[in-house]
Automatic annotation (TrEMBL):
Pfam families: Sigma70_r2, Sigma70_r4. Gene3D superfamilies: 1.10.1740.10, Winged helix-like DNA-binding domain superfamily/Winged helix DNA-binding domain (1.10.10.10). It comes from Psychromarinibacter halotolerans. Keywords: DNA-binding, Sigma factor, Transcription, Transcription regulation. The lineage of its organism: Bacteria, Pseudomonadati, Pseudomonadota, Alphaproteobacteria, Rhodobacterales. InterPro entries: RNA_pol_sigma-70-like, RNA_pol_sigma-70_dom, RNA_pol_sigma70_ECF_CS, RNA_pol_sigma70_r2, RNA_pol_sigma70_r4, RNA_pol_sigma_r2, RNA_pol_sigma_r3/r4-like, WH-like_DNA-bd_sf. It comes from the Bacteria. SUPFAM superfamilies: Sigma2 domain of RNA polymerase sigma factors (SSF88946), Sigma3 and sigma4 domains of RNA polymerase sigma factors (SSF88659). This is RNA polymerase sigma factor.
Amino acid sequence: MLAVRDTRDRVAFGRLFDHFAPRLKAVVLRSGSAEGQAEEIVQEVMLTVWRKAAQFDPERAQVSSWIYQIARNRQIDVVRKENRPVPEELGYEAEAEPDASRVIAVEEESGKLRAALGALTPEQRSVIEKAYFGEMTHQDIRDDTGLPLGTIKSRIRLGLERLRHELKGLRDE
């Protein structure tokens, strides 16, 4: 993964793909997806791994945990688009249990982020959630809400500025 992240090594990515693709497909199939859909999800996950390799931080997560989290998020997106209930437990096989202190730290950060999002105006929160959690483009948000693009961009910019202010010092703790 580090070779993929640092030098965009295609051979290393091929090995990653060969290792994780069958495992991801098995997990996605076990959670109820159809064969074709599972293959699409795996392809999208591995494409995301390639595109977002620069975001991988071995200090924050193991490679397997990072990739399985991407897969879980992608599968949830697919399930939501189909308006099916999200399975409670998708059964991802982590190679090792996470460190309890790291879990607590992530939960605390998540709580602070939720509180900071709650401090935004409903309009700002809505467009930020659509853009970052819903992975919608500005055009998609415009189509969804009917708002002008300038309004959407302004709300996102102002909301992000407020989040930065609310979360200032979070990484220093």
